[in-house]
Amino acid sequence: MNKDLTVGEPGKVLWKFCLPLFGSVIFQQLYNIADSLVAGRFAGENALAAVGNSYEITLIFLAFAFGCNIGCSVIVSQLFGARRYGDMKTAVYTTLVASGVLCAGLMAIGFGAGAGLLQLINTPEEIFADSALYLRIYVLGLPFLFFYNVATGIFSAMGDSKTPFYFLAVSSVTNILVDIWFVAGFHWGVAGVAWATFLCQGASCILAITVVLKRLKGVKTDQKSVIFSWNILKKLAIIAVPSILQQSFISVGNIVIQSVINSFGASVIAGYAAAIKLNNLVVTSFTTLGNGVSNYAAQNMGAGKTERIGQGMRAGIRMVWAICVPVVALYLLAGRYLLCLFMDSESVEALATGMQFLRVVSGFYFVVSLKLISDGILRGVGRMREFVIGTFTDLILRVVLAVSLSRLFGTMGIWAAWPVGWSTATVLSLYFNRDFLKNSSGPDPDRVGEKASV
């Protein structure tokens, strides 16, 4: 069911639209959490370390898929809000074609350079083979990752956050069961974890694309849509490329940080692998809610209702902070029990590493969630230059501080880089959105339309 986000009280509209998105990303993260959980519990600490080690490289590929999702979602939202349905269909078809070409290129790179990347990040010998195997199977499933992300972006752009939630709820639960079946039942180890994700994500992708194409066929248009448009591709790239660069450089930064962590041995790698999955569950949830705010801002901008954008930003901040309270309490008070889901309680060093990370980082979820909502507004109204500045500031600070402070304070120095990077980037993002924070009428409509018109 398509949903117009340009009418109704902004707070209620956002809650109703974003809650299914929040549920969707929880199930999406279950894919990754299930991989580490099953590997750690049924295949051992080295298997957990191997999956976690490869995960940082897979985030590079995910960055490109995420960029395609955001680019398509923002442009389609603007066209949907402006009732330009023919151009909206063209934008969807153009994204599918461009994503397919991009995915093919990344698969070639992944198969050719995967082992080299693992060597580059100082992967320990005892987990190298399993890391390489997991990475190869992951690259094989990249088409499913790309087209599924595009499909969810299209659903969100048209105000439908429930359909992707239903797909993910079923496929994620199935993935956990298949993970256990392949690893505990067939004893396939890391390969079983990877193949389970491949099969379940493939099924979700096929279903999602089928529903999207059927949904688009039912949208009546006054003008003929085309399969590919260079003009639309350029507009998609204006939004997608900064988002891809953002996520790619974050992934590269995480790889640098992973290489530093790898120098501390397999137990520290395993502890970090478990803790970072818990961390990414939260941060990715906030990112997805920020994407929902982007859709809201883009639809309202396309409809010329820029006065609603500031109201939506405030509602988004209240929403993520309401989620922060129980999450922070859970991680601080029960973090050890959550980490034990991934490993035996006898893994003393790994558990200590994971708890140290959670204690340092979790209190700053209030800060990073504020940044991600503010970033969502920047993307939705087309302020991509400001968006990139804030993001790169965060990345550079985290990488530089993690490398330098690790030499002085060990792992504690690495974890301290997160709060500093998040806090600095949050201040910048809020400064760039200061006009929306000052009043609910938002900025000069002509200025907004000039920057992100479609």
Write the layout of secondary structure elements.
Blueprint lengths: L9 H34 L1 H37 L3 H36 L4 H16 L1 H16 L4 H24 L4 H28 L12 H33 L3 H37 L4 H33 L8 H14 L3 H16 L3 H26 L1 H22 L1 H5 L6 H8 L2
Walk me through what this model shows.
This protein has 454 residues and is mostly helical. It has 16 helices and no strands. The protein has helices at residues 10-43, 45-81, 85-120, 125-140, 142-157, 162-185, 190-217, 230-262, 266-302, 307-339, 348-361, 365-380, 384-409, 411-432, 434-438, 445-452. Helix 2 runs parallel beside helix 4 (125-140), helix 3 packs antiparallel against helix 5 (142-157) and helix 10 packs antiparallel against helix 12 (365-380).
Summarize the structure.
The protein has helices at residues 10-43, 45-81, 85-120, 125-140, 142-157, 162-185, 190-217, 230-262, 266-302, 307-339, 348-361, 365-380, 384-409, 411-432, 434-438, 445-452. With 454 residues, the protein is mainly α.
Q: Kindly provide the radius of gyration, computed on alpha-carbon positions and rounded to a whole number of angstroms.
A: 21 Å
Number of strands: 0
Distance between the termini: 24 Å
Described by the principal axes of the CA atoms, the overall outline is globular
Largest sheet: none
Low-confidence stretches: 440-454
Q: N-to-C SSE series?
A: HHHHHHHHHHHHHHHH
Structural class: mainly alpha
Quaternary status = single chain
Which properties best describe this structure?
0% strand, mainly alpha, globular, 454 residues
